[in-house]
Amino acid sequence: MPDELTPKPGEARPGTDSGLAGAEIEPILTVPPVVGAPKPHPILVVDDLTRSFGGLRAVDVDHLEVERGVVTALIGPNGAGKTTLFNQLTGFDRADTGRWSFDGQPVSSPSPDQLARKGMIRTFQLTKSLAKLSVLDNVLLGAPGQVGERLSAAPFRSRWQGQEEANVEQAEELLHRFNLAHMRDELAGTLSGGQRKLLEVARALMADPVMIMLDEPMAGVNPALAQSLMRHITELAFEGLTVVFIEHAMDVVTGISDWVVVLAQGRIIAEGPPWKVIHDDEVIDAYLGRRRAGAGS
Amino acid sequence: MAFDIIFGNAARAAFGPEAVILALAAVGLNVHFGFTGLLNFGQVGFLLLGAYGTSVSVATFGWSLWVGILVGLVLSVALAVAFGLPTLRLHVVMFAIVTIAAAEIIRILIGSTDAIGLTGGPLSVSFDAEAFYDLNPYPDGPHDRYGVGTFEFTGQQMWVITVGWVLVALVSLVVFLIVRSPWGRVLKSIREDEDATRSLGKNVFSYKMQALIIGGVIGGMGGVVDAIKTSGADPNGFRPQVTFFAYTALLLGGAATYVGPILGAILFWFLREWIESFLRQLSAEAWLPSTVADFLDGAEGVISVAMVGLSLVLLMLFRPQGITGSRTEMQLDAR
Ligand SMILES: Nc1ncnc2c1ncn2[C@@H]1O[C@H](COP(=O)(O)OP(=O)(O)OP(=O)(O)O)[C@@H](O)[C@H]1O
Ligand SMILES: [Mg+2]
Q1: CA separation for the pair A257, A175 (Å, rounded)
Q2: How many whole angstroms from A128 Cα to the centroid of ligand 1?
Q3: Which of B82, B95, B104 is nearest to B36 (CA)?
Q4: Region B226-239 average pLDDT
């Protein structure tokens, strides 16, 4: 169902402080690099979030704040719980315990579609392309507030055609940006793995997110295109979009993120600006697989 | 051999009321399975409620036929909600099991001796559909026939099938209009990947429920046509195979297309009746060895259904997308 609260492209997003981006010094730089540090303009605040699978504690986060309008990287070794954390926050998996608030509102009963309509849009590590829909339709599905998605308006083309045409224009722009314009009318199922990743990001951006959560968006995408994708994402962050992305490649992380959160065995072991975090002993240990005495407790 | 008689029988079946009923069942199923990916194995339940809602309203409660039709359709909606509320959030396989079981439970309850007072139980129910036939514009004398050669109908039959096919056309038009819209795009996305659809802010449960109701009511219309055509309803007419015949028609014609289910229903009845008539004629031929003739005698109906099944197997091998489906879409399933 369409959500009247979702702003149309071009309109100011509610709660977005337009003076934030481009200020003399980014407020995030004033935040001390300690785990659980409060942020000046948090869009997401998480408390005591846990999730266990049998005896395994996949996620165990005491406190996490995500700053609005910046690019935050979530890193950590395989199996650290990054995807599980995403699933929890976006309502795709139930959390055992925990509270969180998004965009100033507490998330009481997390349901994926409700959160998405509030502007929390995620992509999946294992891409979910809609195989028998055209590439263009995949992207168009992301468009928020399309009246024609209501059954009462669906049979009457005149009621949704104008909106559809505007959406097509926006979708084509996105496809062009992600080198998919030539595939516009192909079925999405015919795309390669990397192209599907790109399509999913395009679709998520089409949904006009307030915060976009990308689970390894660059995996399998060729480096040049990955570069342009990241550049696009930083541009959007500059315009006020909040970006959280999971990534393993350190050069990408240091290249575009303003803030890095490190997860290992479900716990946040470090956070801070990239150049500080990558020199953190505990982070290096987590990546090299060594366990320090007391770590993970 | 009298091929003109065989052809006449087949053509009458292909365009007769049975094909109308099957077409409606298949068009509804197409909304469920073809467009939304809902594996509904209880489509016959909607036909049953459409037919019994109409029949019982008129026969037991003495209401007018038009009220009866409305009752039949409302019951179809109720069944969709009852199917959907507890199961649409579950896995597709769960949904399939629940639907097939629920439809069969309803049939057994309606056909039980305890229900004789209400539904006629195992004795079936019958009523007078004159309110419908009063509107018949076709002269219906004992010698009035419509058609060419062996392919001909009586005036009453003409009236049923005219209304029936117009109904099929109207319903298909509505399905076309709503499915080619952004609403239909959401349905197809749900078929492809529920979680992806959810992640873009669509209330998947609500869309599935809408699809279930729409397809169910279309199936219910099939039941209404059945009730009017037979002037009643019999529990034996609503066994689970009706659902599978509807799937056969849908897959023959091509799922997720607009004319596929209609074409499939016509073809299904043409093939079935052609084979059955052919076998009947054959077993009457004098030159057949008596063992073969004895084997065929009385088994024509069963064999013809088996042959339709065989043709479906062949179709899946050589043209898995059905007659009107798209080959490229089908090939994606292999990826
Ligand atoms: N549905 C599940 N059932 C059981 N265990 C699970 C489930 N989902 C995740 N896990 C476990 O939780 C842990 C965290 O998994 P998760 O997918 O969140 O890791 P990740 O940080 O995303 O890793 P990667 O970088 O490899 O994607 C793993 O040990 C995994 O085996
Ligand atoms: Mg992961």
Answers
A1: 24
A2: 18
A3: B95
A4: 95
- Return the structure tokens found at B228: 């009017």
List of domains in chain B:
3-140+149-330 (1.10.3470)
Ligand nearest to the CA of A124: 2
Residues A94 and A29 in one domain: yes
- Over the Cα atoms of chain A, what is R_g? 19
Q: Which helix (H) or strand (E) holds A27?
A: none
Q: Are residues A134 and A118 located together in one domain of the fold?
A: no
> To test ligand 1's pocket by mutation, which of A57, A82, A87 has the most ligand atoms within 8 angstroms of CB?
A82
Instruction: Write the residue with the smallest CA distance to atom 11 of ligand 1.
Output: A58
Tell me which residue range forms the domain holding A149.
Answer: 130-190
The tens digit of pLDDT for each residue in B127-177 reads: 999 999 999 999 988 888 898 888 889 999 999 999 999 999 999 999 999
In one-letter notation, the amino acid at residue A69 is G
Number of domain units in chain A: 2
Tens-place pLDDT, residues A151-200 = 999 999 999 999 999 999 999 999 998 889 999 999 999 998 888 999 99
Render pLDDT for A40-52 as a digit per residue (tens, 0 to 9): 999 999 999 999 9
Please tell me the distance from the alpha carbon of residue A47 to that of residue A120, in angstroms, as a whole number.
18
Whether residue A98 is contained in a domain is answered as: yes
Q: Are residues A120 and A137 in the same domain?
A: no
Q: Is residue A10 part of a domain?
A: no
Do A161 and A231 lie in one domain? The reply is: no
CA distance B208 to chain A (A): 12
| Residue A38: CATH number of its domain | 3.40.50.300
